[in-house]
Amino acid sequence: MGIGRFRNREAGWFDALPYALIAIGAVLRVVPHPWNFAPIGAMALFGGAVLPRGVGIAVPLAALALSDAVLGFYAGFAWVYGSFVLIGLLGLALRRRRTVARIIAASLASSVLFFLVTNFGEWLGPLYSHHVSGLWASYLAGIPFFRNTVASDLIYSLAFFGAYESASRFARPLVPTAQRTT
User: Fold this and answer.
1) Chunked in runs of 10, what are the mean pLDDT values of the chain (182 residues)?
2) Alpha carbons 138 and 140: distance in angstroms, whole number
């Protein structure tokens, strides 16, 4: 048995890695952190990019629901979950080609998407007038939280994708020297 075959068989841990990273993200959401500095956007983007299609959205949603079960559900959660699904779909665009630049762009787009969707949902609630001025006020009120959303989405996305890429290089089967072509 060549070392390439042996290493490949032992790399089954790699298949579980995305689920472990998403679980870590859910735990990090539950522990104390600054406002809006949580890995939820990165979990959705990462799940959409690396897990099988339906699972790529369902697993991060389940992680979000489990962490909400610990933290408590809240008014407007449907807008958060809706934005989460859209971010997961955005992750699908990263499936074929994941570069640092594309991950950063998708992470920033995720932050903007989350901001627009959730603050729109807040505007529809009882807090703001249902006029353009109320919508504007809702978005203005969200700006102080947006900085942390962008920072956490970037940091956690780069961490999740970086850990996954590093692990994938380690998990790749070794090609014996006699089979290499150069």
Assistant:
1) 41 77 86 90 94 89 90 90 95 93 97 97 94 96 96 96 89 58 54
2) 5
The answer to whether residue 153 sits within a structural domain is yes
Q: Is 62 a domain residue?
A: yes
Could you tell me the pTM of the whole model? Answer: 0.83
> What is the number of structural domains in the chain?
1
* Cα separation, 98 vs 22, whole angstroms: 18
* Cα radius of gyration rounded to whole Å, the chain: 19
C-alpha 177/C-alpha 162 separation (Å) is: 28
Containing structural domain, residue 137: 3-172
What CATH number is given to the structural domain containing 129?
1.10.1760
Residue 28 CA to residue 21 CA, distance in Å, equals 10
CB under 8 Å to 169, separation ≥6 — which residues?
A: none
* Biggest CA pair distance of the chain: 72
Report d(CA 76, CA 103) in Å as an integer.
Answer: 28
The answer to the question of residue 141 being in a domain is yes
